[in-house]
């Protein structure tokens, strides 16, 4: 009986790493909180190392957004990871990513690299040009 229980435990596949949580970006300037939104995953800026514009002392704004109507919104809380759903590949989600540095949204991928690290990719031109960052889990 104990042998059968042990065998059943060993045969159970390991749980997939979960991207839900708070992540420190590669440059350490921000944290992104990823959670469920409907049937997908979404993430927004939850912390900035320098939340205020040094010139004005006021919160930094999404000034580079290609949508002029969003340029006055504070960066803190801006959605960065959008509509990520399982891609069909192990430990990978596909959706969109917003880059506040250039104000553009790209095809995006999250690939888990163990429980405490993920790779976030943003791609343009149908995947011909991609840039990636590795984020570290905070919680």
UniProtKB/TrEMBL annotation:
Provide the alphabetized UniProt keywords.
Answer: Signal
Any signal peptide, and if so, which residues? Answer: 1-16
By its UniProt entry, which InterPro entries does this protein fall under? Answer: DUF2147 (IPR019223)
Q: Which Pfam families match?
A: DUF2147
Query: Can you tell which superkingdom this protein's organism belongs to?
Result: Bacteria
- Taking every annotated instance into account, which residue ranges of this chain make up the domain DUF2147? 21-137
Q: What is this protein called?
A: DUF2147 domain-containing protein
């Amino acid at each position: 009986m104990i042998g059968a229980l042990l065998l059943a435990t060993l045969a159970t596949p390991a749980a997939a790493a979960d991207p839900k949580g708070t992540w420190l970006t590669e440059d350490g300037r921000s944290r992104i909180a990823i959670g469920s939104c409907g049937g997908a995953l979404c993430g927004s800026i939850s912390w900035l190392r320098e939340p205020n514009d040094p010139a004005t002392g006021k919160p930094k704004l999404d000034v580079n957004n290609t949508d002029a109507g969003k340029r006055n919104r504070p960066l803190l809380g801006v959605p960065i990871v959008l509509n990520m759903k399982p891609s069909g590949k192990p430990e990978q989600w596909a959706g969109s990513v917003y880059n506040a540095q250039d104000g553009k949204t790209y095809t995006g991928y999250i690939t888990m690299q163990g429980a405490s690290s993920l790779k976030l990719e943003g791609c343009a031109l149908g995947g011909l040009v991609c840039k990636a960052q590795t984020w570290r889990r905070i919680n």
